[in-house]
């Protein structure tokens, strides 16, 4: 049974009745874990209202729950404070540190990004890597983009990007799919690139800028891979396939014009389309 299931106080509570929520908070006595979770839930409802008096009351509740060891409350209070401007940043960092040290991945990522912005790359990247190591998709994507851009992150290399993104891709992260395609194009891993292109194109629309880059990368490969990619791109709209073809056309030599014309037909595009 989850802790939320052990909170009968929530059953009769209207989540839109902010005065009733405030009254319920005022009536909580005690500091055990169950009540701290209740404070977290009710405090979050008040914070989410966006109405200043209720937000302040919600922050008080979240701070109290954070003091009782609820890392989710610390993270929520921190993100709320960060949204209020620079005056709350010191307290927000303290709350994020508490939640990050407790192993909460979103807090680790948020703290890591703050430290990076504050020009503390060693600690910042360590927290981002810790969140990615837990399989937190936004952190895995953040770390992978940094590796793709050539940043030095401990012992990690760009070659580690596919493994870093594995969990995020399994969860269906569109961003993770796009980063992986970018990496495979940069690394000239053509067979894997075409395979992943098919997996991605069958699920979602891909950015035309990415498809143009993929085309430019595949222009260096054997034309065999061009036609495999054309099959993979069949589910996408004309403008997506045109972008891919543009990438090829802008990168090939004149003696490959015949292959390019055949690719245009394979993509189902008329001669005047590109």
Structure description:
The protein contains 15 helices and no strands. With 274 residues, the protein is mainly α. Among the domains are: 1-102, Serine Threonine Protein Phosphatase 5, Tetratricopeptide repeat; 206-274. Helix 3 (52-67) packs antiparallel against helix 4. The termini are far apart.
| Oligomerization | single chain
Q: Give the uncertain stretches in residue-range form.
A: 1-5
Broad CATH class of the domain at 1-102:
Mainly Alpha
Number of strands: 0
What is the second-level CATH architecture of the domain at 1-102?
Answer: Alpha Horseshoe
Give the radius of gyration: 25 Å
Task: Produce a short descriptive summary.
The chain has 274 residues and is mostly helical. 67% of the residues lie in helices and 0% in strands.
What topology does this entry show?
Elements (H helix, E strand, L loop, with lengths): L17 H9 L6 H17 L2 H16 L3 H12 L6 H13 L3 H13 L3 H13 L3 H12 L12 H10 L3 H13 L3 H12 L6 H11 L4 H10 L5 H12 L7 H10 L8
């Amino acid at each position: 049974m989850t802790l939320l299931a052990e909170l009968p106080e929530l059953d009769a509570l209207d989540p839109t009745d902010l005065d009733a929520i405030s009254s319920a908070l005022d009536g909580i006595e005690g500091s055990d874990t169950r009540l701290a979770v209740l404070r977290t839930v009710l405090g979050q409802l008040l914070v989410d209202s966006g109405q200043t008096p209720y937000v302040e009351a919600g922050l008080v509740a979240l701070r109290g729950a954070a003091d009782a060891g609820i890392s989710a409350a610390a993270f929520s209070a921190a993100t709320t404070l960060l949204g209020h401007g620079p005056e709350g940043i010191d307290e927000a960092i303290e709350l994020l540190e508490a939640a990050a040290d407790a192993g909460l991945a979103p807090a680790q990522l948020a703290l890591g990004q703050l430290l990076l912005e504050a020009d503390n790359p060693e600690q910042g990247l360590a927290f981002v890597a810790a969140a990615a190591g837990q399989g937190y998709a936004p952190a895995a994507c953040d770390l992978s983009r940094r590796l793709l851009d050539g940043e030095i992150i401990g012992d990690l290399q760009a070659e580690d990007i596919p493994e870093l993104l594995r969990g995020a891709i399994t969860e269906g992260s569109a961003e993770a799919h796009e980063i992986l395609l970018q990496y495979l194009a940069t690394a000239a891993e053509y067979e894997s690139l075409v395979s992943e292109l098919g997996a991605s194109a069958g699920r979602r629309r891909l950015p035309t800028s990415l498809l143009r880059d993929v085309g430019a990368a595949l222009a260096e490969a054997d034309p065999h891979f061009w036609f495999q990619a054309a099959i993979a791109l069949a589910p996408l709209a004309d403008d997506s396939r045109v972008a891919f073809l543009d990438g090829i056309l802008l990168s090939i030599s004149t003696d490959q014009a015949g292959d390019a014309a055949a690719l245009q037909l394979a993509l189902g595009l008329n001669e005047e389309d590109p």
